[in-house]
Amino acid sequence: MIYVVIDIAKLNHFTSAVSSDGEILIEPFKFSNDANGFQMLISKRYSFDKDSIIIDLESTAHCGDNLGRYLVAENYKVCVLNPIKTSVMRKNNVRKTKTDKVNTYIICKTLMMQDSLRFVSYYDLDLMDLKSLGRFRQKAIKQRSRLKIQPTTYVDEVFPELQYFFKSGLHQKSVYALLKEAPTPEAVASIHMTHLFKVTYHGHFDKETAQ
Predict the structure, then answer these.
(1) What is the Cα–Cα distance from 56 to 59, expressed in whole angstroms?
(2) CA distance 58 to 31
(3) Helices and strands: H and E segment counts in the chain
(4) Could you read off the pLDDT of 77-102 as tens digits, one per residue?
(5) SS3 helix, strand, coil % of the chain, rounded to 5?
(6) Contacts of 198 (CB under 8 A, 6+ apart)
(7) 125 touches 67 (CB < 8 A)
């Protein structure tokens, strides 16, 4: 069996390949976290049989999601190793050398010591997408709530009486449209007087016409 370990980061990943006998088949190298980098990674694996390769991604938030999707789509066996397990191995590392190259070896040793591995499926990828959408929705809701506070504070300070004219609350299209055209009490009063003048004038004109 060939173990390919990938140390995930935001912009660039480090990877290496080791056989089940502990032989280093591919020295650690860096590749970018984008389509070009993924293709570079795959090009290094062409000499190996896909069925004999296990690829491990050390879980680090969302940084490895795109790479995981890419590898599963390419029909590779992909598993995600909990970083807590590799952390223990790092602490036991005699050299205490904290480099990306050494880190890939540590991850590989940890992977080889596991009794069983759980491989990533398309279901897992769909679940990741749903979680991502859920996080985005929660973030959007919080942002909307913060934005609503600003006009409410402004109205409370400048024109507190305005809220009594709108039973449904201030946060509606009609109120926003009004405040856009008339952001002060004086401007609202001006619009109101203009409207009354038009109604009165046209009403008087219609009565004279009828007579």
Answers:
(1) 9
(2) 15
(3) 7, 5
(4) 888 776 665 655 555 554 555 555 56
(5) 55, 15, 25
(6) none
(7) no
